[in-house]
Amino acid sequence: MLNGTELKLFADANVLNEMTDKQVKILLAAIEVFAEKGYANASTKEIATRAGVSEGNIFSKFKNKRGLLDAIIEPVINSIFPAVLTDISDDRLPQQFVTLHALVDSLVHDRIQFLKDNAAVLKIFVSEVLYNETVRQQLLTKFPPLYWRNINRNLNQLKENHLIVNWDNLEILKIMWSIVGGAIIGYLLFDQPLEQREITHTIDALVKSLAR
């Protein structure tokens, strides 16, 4: 069963505003079934049964199984990844932390909590990002040039403050995403634990990789 916070992402994106209670139940059931079995192995019949509705109710709103999947991943594309890097693009970031460890600890803990609060939705989304080129391209469009300029400016400031290694910014971001992304994929797709010990190890790995 979902943990009660999974719909917040959709509420924040105003996706639920024009949905009936029955349609919200269908959306929740689809999240559960897709997360448990994967998109390819799920059926609209099983989703309808889980939601306590007829299959016709699914088709009238979402058209088909793919329409249900799109209703789940589009709000994630529109909100989740910009939110994930919000702190990095914040103008105040370089002045908020006096050590690299404090910076990484704050960023990782916030992201891990978001991950746990939205695990089922993110499991579906990550699977699509890994295997669907269209979804990957859609994701890239959500980072406009100004957003990247903000990230680059703040990484440069961190380097000037001697908080981070003096590497190319893209290389720094690749290191961050490879370490954090590995922990995320392990947790979502392979049921690997992500408790305090694993979080601490992730933070330590990032600090060691990026320390000046």
Automatic annotation (TrEMBL):
Keywords, sorted A to Z: DNA-binding
GO molecular function, one term: DNA binding
Domain HTH tetR-type, first and last residues per copy: 20-80
DNA-binding span(s): 43-62
UniProt cross-references to InterPro entries, sorted A to Z: Homeodomain-like_sf, HTH-type_Tx_Regulator, HTH_TetR
Gene3D superfamilies noted in UniProt: Tetracycline Repressor, domain 2
Protein name: TetR family transcriptional regulator
